[in-house]
Amino acid sequence: MGSYCHMEGMAHWGLDVVLICFFLDLIKEGQYHLQIIRSQLEDDAAYECQVGPSETSGGLISSSAQLTVLIPPKRPLIREYEANSIVTWVAGTEYTVHCEVTGARPSAELTFQRGDSKLTDVTSQIQPGSTEKLFNTEATLRITPKSSDNRQQLTCCASNAVALTPVVVGFTMNILFPPQPPIIEGYSGPMVKAKDNLKLTCISLSGNPLATLQWLKNGEVLSTNWETDDANQLSRSSLKLSLTPEDNMATVSCQALNQVMSHPLQASINLHVVFPPEQVKIIGSTSTQENKEISLSCSTSPSNPPVFLRWWLGWRELNASEVTILEAAHGGMVTVSNLTYTPNREDNGLSLICEAFNEAIMYTKSATVTLRVTYPPQKIWIDVPPPETCFRAGTKVKLICFASGGNPLPRLEWYKVTCPQMVGAPGICMQHQQQPPGRSGLLKPCLGKQDTKIVRDGITSGSSGNIVSKELILTTTASDNMASYRCDATSPSRTPALTASTVLHVQFPPLQATITVTDKVVKRGQSMTLTCKSGSSNPPARLIWFKDGEKLNATDLGQKKAEYGGFSTSGKVTLAVSSADHGKRVECHTYSAALSEGVNTFYQLTVLFPPEFSNEQPHMVQTVEQGSVLLPLMISASPPEITYRWTFLGELLLAEGSPRYHLRDGGSLEIWNVTRADAGKYTIHCENAEGQNETTIWLDVHYSPSIRSLGDPTYVDVGGTAEIICQADANPAPSSMFQWRWLGDLERSLEELGIEQVSEGLTSRLRVQAALRAHAGLYECQVDNGIPPVARSSARLIVRYSPEIIKGPGQRKVAASGDRRSQASLQCSAQGVPSVHFSWAKNGASLDLSSPRHTVVAHHEGSLHTSTLTIANVSAVHDYATFTCTASNELGTDALDIQLLSTSRPDPPAGLKVAAVADSWLALEWTPGFDGGLPQSFRVRYHWPGIPSFLYADVFPPQSSVFTLTGLQPDTTYNVSVNARNALGESDFADGGAGLSVTTEERKEKPIDREPEIPSQPESESRGMPLPLVGLLGALGALLVACNLFFLVCLLCRRRTQALKGEESHGPVKGKVRFGNNYTISKWLERGGAKLVELEEYSLEGSTAKTSTTTSSVATTPVGHQADSEADATIAGPQNRPHWLSSPEVHEYEEVMVPRRYEEPGPPYEMWYPKKEPWIHEYANAYQGSTRWPSTYAEPMQIYDPVADYLPLEGELPFEQQGELV
Fold it and tell me: Which ranges form a coiled coil (predicted)?
């Protein structure tokens, strides 16, 4: 937009008198133009051009120029509905639509359009806008939509002078309107047949929404399924009907409905169905008597159209008496035909037919019944035993009834007719008069009313043709005597029944027997009468009386007539009763001699008497202490209500509330927790209404034994006599209840020990005469009277004797270095009772024990006493001497000389002997000599003819005194000897070097050398061992040998290392070779006083000559003595060969001995057992309590002492161990 003015001078444009200082570029020849770009509503105003004064002219103001700003309308707004939405209206209903547009200049014009057509029923209203220069326009449309408006656009258009195109806003109309009435297709003809299938289709056109369809039949919904076709704007529903007779005259409707309609639109058709009757039936009874009129009715079920009926009997058509057609449901018709007919016997079994037909619908159906014409039977007869037959009760009798003719076949029934009052002599089987045919009845008339009962048991029916039969098998009873059995033949014709009967004659024993008494209760000594009456019997019975199996004399009271035509017999007996008769039975036996049968009854007597004790009443009762006892009471009384009072030692026992005394049923007294104080006499006093009585019962209480006194300890000198007295308390006290037992480990009986046992009453004596040391020990007194627990107690028998010093091998010499730095221990052990005291002397003079170099330690253990003299800083000059040990007690003394010497080579072994010999080995044993104060080892020398020199074998373990030579030749003489050696040299060979001459046995079975072996499986089984198994076992054996070698090498190396460490750590004194004479018995002294439990008799002279080495069998050695078994096995026989001799090869320890092919080492270690040392005294632990007496002893498995380890022969000893020359 632009304006201009022509002027001279300074020009200004003004807006509503407001100066606008715009200097525009549009200045030309004094023209000043104003241009407004993108004008706004605010630019709407009057504009003036003002020119300021110049040099030549004054200021000027131009005329006003009015600027009008026009604004097109904005997008209209429909107040009720959202733009571009779908609005649902119902056709025929008036609606109001408001459309407004704001902020337009000039005011906008609003119009409504339906599709392309403009609507005229519009009112508009213009109002000021938001500012004074703008205008708002509002238009209101009133519209009544039609179905044709469905899916049309309703728009509101706004326009003014400025708008190039109208501004449009609108929405889509969704007009709801009802559908057109439905149409039913598919039903063309007026008539359809039942069981046909009818398909109907219902169509409803148009409608928004499309109609929902449903089918109804007679107002009831059949189907609610339908489908819609949007393309063709219709709804469709199909219905399939399987027509039935009930569909006749039915109205089938289709209803169409949508949400606009309040009531559905409906189309209906009426069905006309043709259907025949479903059934034809005949009503009425088809059974009748001959020549009697019957009425039948034939009717059909409903049909459309109605049918016709006709009757046929066999091949003949019968005329109906009446025909009726009635209306039925669903438009059907029912046809009824009535027939009246009088049949005869020939019509029986003919078919009567009612036929229904209709030629128009080509239908026919019939109903058939069979006529049953009844007529009575013609004849009846029975097959029974002859009338004069007599039957025994219990006999089975067969009665058969026959009947012929009649329709239906007659019904046969058996009846039993009895007469309660029968005259004549029914008990006698008599000849009957000839009866009319088919009739054999009672001979005499019945006085009174007859009793008739139908018989149902034992009945069997049968028929053949027109003859029927009924068989009755009955077991005769007393009631069958003179009873009439009648057979009746009846039929439905209500004619009199045909009958036939017979009478039975039955002999029967008495049915029962009854006893009556004059007085039911009598007292002792009174009399009473019993009367017995038998029941009816035929012939009459005889009465017999019994009491306790004895027949009684009775009085016969005669016979009377009874039921069933029998007789009743009566009799009586009179008794004088006693108390013994109370509760007893008096029996009455009724017996029929003719039938050898009868019936019995009894009457139990009730006799009143005071209490009486039974002859079997016990007067002595035995029981066991701490248990319970019942003092039984065997008493009888009548009346049985008895008052019981028990007394003991004159005092009344109150059983009620007592914790120990309880009164039981029958008056017996039960005592709980019985003690021996309860023994004694009990008195029971009994009383009832008839009197009183009493008796006594002795209670003997048995109790387990206990030992009151036992002489412990008991002393006796050797050779003396002693008695150990055991006093007990027991009840009962049988003579054999005392048992004595010696508690030594060895199983030795008192007879073997020569000890006598004397028992009398409650005292038993164990008598020892000429007491020996072997008798000493612990003895147990055991008392057992059969009531547990058994009493046991032990007593010690101590046999006193003078001291006896143990003078075993090596006890007389002790070696020690005389360098004034060593010490020597001299040990003296003695046995003796009582305690032994020791004294020491040197070279016959009493030893000065006050010297600090002399120490004496005494040890006492049981009867073994030990004194050890220790000499410190041994001097060869002063201490190498003979020391005398003297042991003494009050019974005597004993002495032992012990020589203290310098260390030297060992003494030769003694007592070399052969323990066992076989064809390829021999076992040797010997007694070691003095070891010279150093550890010694042994070497065996052997020789046989044919070799130039001796062969040697080192004994292993080195200190073992047994050895087995293996690999020898059979039947060969060998010269064998043994010597000892220590670090200072070798001893001479045993027995002066002469040796033993031993010849091996001849080979008996095996061609190779036989060696001792453990018994194994038979050779035949080993031959059968598979080769792979042999190889596996060989590999395992080789592995085991290698492991043993490795273990042994490690062990020897460890011991050598420990020995070297010990010499370094313990100093020069403790590391020296031990000096003393205790190496023989030190094995058990060093055990810390191990218990010695086995006592053995020995002689004083032999005690010093025996050693601790004995032989034993491998097979019988206990597991705990394994080490000893291995050591002793070297002298075992071939059958007991130890496992370490099982291989003939060179032993794995061969490197430690002189390498000889034939040598085999001994057992790896040796153990000592007290039981193997006969010189150990029997009093070990004799002074200890019996509760500590051991049953067994356990010895630890010892590997030989490291001090005694094998030492090399080569080399030089230290100076302190070489001794001094005296």
Answer: none
